[in-house]
Amino acid sequence: MSPGKRNILGSDVEIQGEVRFQGDLIVDGRIEGRIISEGSLTIGEKAKIKAEITCGSVIVQGKVDGNITATDRVEICALAEVSGDIKAEALSMEAGAVFMGSSAIGTPRAAPQAVQKAPAVAEPELIADLQAGSEKAPAA
Question: Which of 82-88's residues contact partners 24+ apart within 8 Å by CB, and which partners?
C-alpha cells in the first residue's frame, strides 16, 4: 500500500481479530479485537468498534468500546460515543459527544530544577554580640 492511500471498510464488513494497516483507514462496519497502525483511523458514524486501538491519530464519529492510544491526537465528534480510556498527545471533543473513561493527554514536561538557596551568612560582629548576650545589632 502506498503511503497516503485511503482504505475503507464499509458498513457491511464485520471483522473479529487484529486489524493492521498503513496510511488511512475509514471504518463504517464492525471490528472486535485490536486495531494497530501508525496511520490515521477514522471511525465512521455507522461503525461499532469493540477493540483496543493503537494508532497515530483517531477520529471517532461512531461508537467505540475499548481503550484508545494515539501517538498524535484523538478527536471525538458530535454524536460519537467512546467508552474506555484515552491516551494521546492531544484530545478534542465536540459538543454532543459522549466520553466515559479516563484520559492522559500530552507528554509530561520535566520537573523544573529546584532552586537552591545560598546559606544565609551572618555578620561575625552580630554573632559575637549574640553570644555575649547583647541584643542590639552593631551600628552600620
Answer: 88/58
